[in-house]
From TrEMBL:
It is found in: Peroxisome. The keyword Glycoprotein does not apply. Coiled coil: none annotated. This is 3-hydroxyacyl-CoA dehydrogenase NAD-binding domain-containing protein. InterPro entries: 3-OHacyl-CoA_DH_NAD-bd, 3HC_DH_C, 6-PGluconate_DH-like_C_sf, ClpP/crotonase-like_dom_sf, Enoyl-CoA_hydra/iso, NAD(P)-bd_dom_sf. Residues 297-473 form the 3-hydroxyacyl-CoA dehydrogenase NAD binding domain. PANTHER family: 3-HYDROXYACYL-COA DEHYDROGENASE-RELATED, 3-HYDROXYACYL-COA DEHYROGENASE. Pathway: Lipid metabolism; fatty acid beta-oxidation.
Length: 697
């Protein structure tokens, strides 16, 4: 976690060494600055090369120090860049593999830059709701040109070094080499050792032939594409400052912009997401070095919508898949759907023909369980009924090889009960994919009471391999996501009882930023699914209160898009949700039957009742140990349920508002005569956090 110093001939080589991406933490910054000063003081040294150990030049800030005093401790990154830039001997950056964020800003402070082809170069700060804060918005436009620099800064996307080297007039790279970038940089340093004055990027001019018109055009474009995110426009204004202001004035404006963005809820949410995504894979009692089981072949039971989508994930990752069905027609339909999905990608240019052919070559089908005997992982995606699961797992237990992982794609059923159908409960785990499974990022990994640690570690690693965000859940009805969404849906029903229309609720929630409101979502998923759950609840938890409006809807046969009518009407072949007079009449009669008085309800109340219903149930999940951490809950809702990313998930949003304020609002909602006195009772964890002045995240 430092930087190493050595002298090769007359060139001092400083190697950043802070795995995995040479983050510019305090120790690394200090050692790098000390190395430059040591080279300055050594008369035998004529030039300096800065490079990175391992597989990166530098990925930028050290995420382990985010938010800590060390992140700002001197020498901070600005101070280190000043030391490098003001060195009296030429400093050459030997850039390879990854050069991003503060790493790119450090290289721009060097006098020269030699890069290896294939190096991914980026200023990705905008993805954290920030702008580059160590001169990136001032130096990159000077070195690369205003337009390409603005594109990089506003998008945050990496570009390969050789592509940037082709930009006309660029002075970002002095040389691009195919291999041995350190050797090339040392040689280059020797060649320029006596050249004076030393070139500084800050002394270059950032020019554009028509800056006013260009930046106005860019404002219109960027503003239209980033309405919920303040950072892109702030980035644009900082780059405009590089053109219009003196360098030092531009640097001050950049720092002011950075400081302002740090305080925005959007940046807080995006930074929370950044860390939540990385910590979700960590399981408290499962060591990171837990040996993994080999997964070389996958079996999938069921060729329906879920089974086909699940299979595509593994085919995309280069793993052979065998799909099992009970009838040949079902297999044929499933394979045809997989082909259709791939062909659509080929048509759009997202998939090459040879890759399509390679993926299909990995797919085999069968009607016999015996053909799954050599699979390392077998996932069932059959009908959501415990008797059906029992039959499947008993057959799997009989044919699967020892050590094979047996997974259920169940969305609500008891994984421990499913495991009990086998003689190997330690090998059973839940892998709850979300529909469409080949698109949705979320994978809920359900840990049974006997699930082995190496099974859990292996499934989490496989989740990463197939590019899913895997989140661990304990066993309960609905796991994390669906258990929470039930309370959200209950509250949506109560809003109808009190006078809201489905479209009023949906519009308020979608304006807040959800991809889809609860009633449009119900129509898409099928209202009969919720109906079946409520019938089960009536037996299992008779005291749980629901609005009867959804049952009245289903009694009319309005199951949603699949029947052409649900909470909304739908025209044949179209998905546009049209407000329904039939539903309006049904709701009016329903309110009359239950003696409910219609009242005006604000969008804010609608949103907070729905979101706080999620938050309170999540607090129960955390208290019970079903969810490991609040940030895991946020990952579930951001990647599986369409919660607005710029709000950071329900728990982050609640923290932003203040948990005291959340509970105060819940107390007001509980005064509603329609409330049963229990719904808005704060979960013990939520009440405790408020009493202690703490937050979830």
């Amino acid at each position: 976690m430092t930087a190493h110093y050595e002298v090769r001939g007359s060139v001092a080589v400083i190697t950043l060494d802070n795995p995995p991406v040479n983050g510019l933490g305090f120790a690394t910054r200090s050692a790098c600055a000390a190395g430059v000063e040591r080279a300055e003081a050594d008369p035998a040294v004529t030039a300096v090369v800065i490079t990175g150990a391992g597989k990166a030049f530098s990925g930028g800030a050290d995420i382990k120090e985010f938010g800590s005093p060390k992140a700002l401790a001197e020498p901070n990154l600005l101070s280190l860049i000043a030391v490098v830039e003001n060195c009296s001997k030429p400093v050459v950056a030997a850039i390879h593999s990854v050069c991003m964020g503060g790493g790119l800003e450090l290289s721009l402070g060097c006098h020269y830059r030699v890069a290896q082809a294939g190096t991914k170069v980026a200023l990705p700060e905008v993805k954290l709701g920030l702008l580059p804060g160590a001169g990136g918005t001032q130096r990159l436009p000077r070195a690369l040109g205003v337009e390409p620099a603005l594109n990089m800064i506003v998008s945050g996307e990496p570009v390969e070094a050789q592509m940037l080297a082709m930009v006309p007039g660029q002075k970002l790279f002095d040389k691009v080499v195919d291999a041995d970038v350190l050797g090339a940089a040392i040689q280059f340093a020797q060649e320029v050792a006596e050249k004076r004055p030393l070139p500084k990027v800050r002394d270059l001019k950032a020019r554009h032939p028509n800056p006013d018109a260009y930046f106005q055009f860019a404002r219109n474009m960027v503003g239209g594409m980033s309405k919920n995110y303040p950072a892109p426009l702030r980035c644009l204004e900082a780059v405009a400052g590089a053109v219009k202001l003196k360098f030092d004035d531009g640097m001050r404006a950049e720092r002011e912009g950075f400081a302002a963005l740090m305080l925005t809820p959007e940046s807080k949410a995006l930074r929370h997401l950044f860390f939540a995504e990385r910590v979700a894979s960590k399981i408290a009692d499962v060591p990171e070095d837990t040996p993994l089981r080999t997964i070389a072949k996958v079996g999938v039971i069921g060729a329906g919508t879920m089974g086909g989508g699940i299979s595509m994930n593994f085919l995309n990752a280069g793993l052979p898949v065998t799909i099992l069905e009970t009838k040949q027609e079902a297999l044929d339909r499933g394979v045809a759907t997989i082909k259709k999905n791939y062909e659509a990608q080929v048509k759009k240019g997202k998939l090459k023909e040879d890759k399509y052919a390679a993926r299909l070559a990995l797919l085999s089908t069968t009607l016999s369980y015996d053909d799954l005997k050599d699979c390392d992982l077998i996932i069932e995606a059959v009908f959501e009924e415990i008797g059906v699961k029992e039959a499947v797992f008993k057959q799997l237990d009989a044919v699967a090889k020892p050590g094979a992982i047996l997974a259920s794609n169940t969305s609500t059923l008891d994984v421990d009960k499913i495991a009990s159908f086998t003689k190997r409960p330690q090998d059973v785990v839940g892998m709850h994919f979300f529909s469409p499974a080949n698109v949705m990022k979320l994978l809920e990994v359900v840990r049974g009471k006997e699930t082995a640690k190496d099974v859990l570690a292996t499934v989490m690693a496989i989740g990463k391999k197939i590019k899913k965000t895997a989140v661990v859940s304990g066993v309960c009805d609905g796991f994390i996501g669906n258990r929470m969404i039930e309370q959200y849906s209950r509250q949506a029903g109560f809003l109808l009882d009190e006078g809201c229309t489905p479209q009023q609720v949906d519009k308020a929630v979608e304006k807040f930023g959800f991809a889809m409101g609860p009633f449009r979502m119900g129509d898409l998923a099928g209202n009969d699914i919720g109906w079946a759950i409520r019938k089960r609840r009536a037996v299992e938890r008779a005291t749980m209160k629901y609005s009867a409006s959804a049952d009245r809807l289903c009694e009319l046969g309005r199951f949603g898009q699949k029947t052409g009518a649900g909470w909304y009407d739908y025209l044949p072949g179209k998905r546009d949700a049209i407000p329904s007079p039939v539903v309006d009449e049904m709701l009016a009669k329903h309110r009359e039957a239950i003696g409910a008085k219609k009242r005006d309800i604000s969008d804010e109340e609608i949103v907070h009742r729905l979101v706080f219903a999620l938050v309170n149930e999540a607090a129960h999940l955390l208290e019970e140990g079903i969810a490991q951490r609040a940030s895991d809950v946020d990952m579930v809702y951001l990647t599986g349920y369409g919660f607005p990313i710029w709000r950071g998930g329900p728990m982050c949003y609640a923290d932003t508002l203040g948990l005291f304020n959340v509970v105060q609002a819940m107390k007001r909602f509980a005064q509603n005569p329609m409330d049963d006195g229990e719904f808005w009772k704060p979960a013990p964890l939520l009440a405790r956090l408020v009493a202690e002045g703490k937050s979830f995240t």
